[in-house]
Write a structure and sequence with these properties.
It is a single chain. The protein is mainly α. It contains two helices and no strands. Helix 1 (13-25) packs across helix 2 (30-44).
Length: 68
């Protein structure tokens, strides 16, 4: 596993609460959820360095939306 580097991040309380809820919904820790979202954004923007495949990468399983 790749080395993890501690990083202090200041967030608006509403953003933090929304991230905590999202992490809980996806059965991830808050840290894993933030890393997942950052990794996905970097990948989608073509900015993820090569070899950047370590860490949480699975997409959460979603229930069918009753209101499409």
């Amino acid at each position: 596993m790749a080395e993890r580097v501690p990083f202090l991040l200041r967030l608006d309380p509403e953003i933090l609460a929304a991230l905590r809820k999202w992490a809980n919904d996806d059965l991830r820790s808050l840290n894993a959820e933030v890393e997942f979202l950052l990794r996905r954004s970097l990948r989608d923007a073509g900015r993820l360095p090569s070899g950047g495949s370590s860490g949480p990468t699975r997409e959460p399983e979603r229930a069918a939306d009753p209101h499409p």
